[in-house]
Specification:
The chain is α+β, with helices and mostly antiparallel strands and 232 residues long. The chain has helices at residues 3-10, 15-23, 114-121, 142-149, 184-191, 223-227; strands at 27-29, 32-33, 47-49, 52-53, 61-66, 95-97, 105-111, 129-135, 164-169, 172-177, 196-204, 207-208, 218-220. The protein contains 6 helices and 13 strands. The strands form 2 sheets. Strands 5, 6, 7, 8, 9, 10, 11, 12 and 13 form a 9-stranded mixed sheet that branches. It has a 4-stranded antiparallel sheet with strand order 2-1-3-4. A hairpin with a 7-residue loop joins strand 6 and strand 7 (105-111). It is elongated.
Length: 232
């Protein structure tokens, strides 16, 4: 990791202030004054800022069981952010991965590792997300084939990627999709004449929402869960 990034993340400084601190000789690595912000450091290095050792918090990876009524962004004039539910040090550096609408519940991933986040959210990865969907009308069995073939949503010119639909009861289904288009799940069911009543995300890739998490609570991901989206 670059030294300026390490200082910014672990000393509560902006990136520009971290660079100034390094350039002015306020930072040492293993007892050597380093003035190059791009200097590479590792977890084993002893890094001092203003003669005080900086603890390496490392990247944080969390899962949250999102309740309804919260938004997946940092600020809003009406609804509170899901980050308000996270009581953790250096809370402001966390970012939300795999956003949900304000009325949608379930699995949200939160991290300060930008590359890890990108591997989940990038359209190129086709990361599968599975939702439990309660519908206003009984689901027609032919919807399974329609979704599997891909369908054209209103005001779009490209059909959706194939999606897997599993019928659990006449009004409840599991839907697995590989995209993250605007209000995609709701629009897919609207396209076949149905209406989503409740929407709950169960999984992102191989990471499954912990059934022990009550709504509004969170936990750190396990090493295995983190590795699902890490480069080999």
């Amino acid at each position: 990791m670059r030294l300026d990034k390490f200082i910014s993340q672990n000393a509560n400084l902006s990136r520009s202030l971290a660079k100034k601190a390094i350039s002015s000789g306020q930072v040492s690595v293993n007892a050597l004054c380093i003035k190059n912000p791009a200097f590479k450091v590792s977890a084993n290095d002893k890094i001092l800022y203003l003669d005080k050792q900086i603890a390496n918090l490392g990247y944080r990876y969390l899962m949250l069981n999102k309740p309804a009524g919260y938004i997946c962004s940092t600020k809003d004039d009406i609804y509170p952010s899901v980050l308000n539910l996270i009581d953790i040090e250096k809370h402001d550096s966390l970012r939300i991965v795999g956003r949900l609408d304000v009325d949608t519940t379930g699995l949200v991933l939160i991290t300060d590792d930008g590359q890890w986040s990108h591997r989940i959210s990038s359209p190129k990865t086709n990361c599968q997300k599975t939702y439990q969907v309660d519908l206003a009308e009984s689901i027609a069995t032919e919807t399974i084939e329609i979704f599997a073939e891909g369908l054209l949503l209103k005001n779009e010119i490209k059909p959706t990627l194939p999606a897997k639909l599993v019928i659990q009861s006449k009004n409840r289904v599991l839907l697995s999709i590989q995209e993250g288009r605007y209000h995609q799940v709701k629009r897919m069911f609207a396209a076949v004449g149905n209406h989503v009543v409740t929407l709950h995300r169960l999984s992102i890739g191989k990471v499954i929402l912990d059934t022990q998490l009550n709504k509004g609570t969170w936990r750190h991901l396990t090493a295995d869960e983190v590795s699902y989206f890490s480069l080999n």
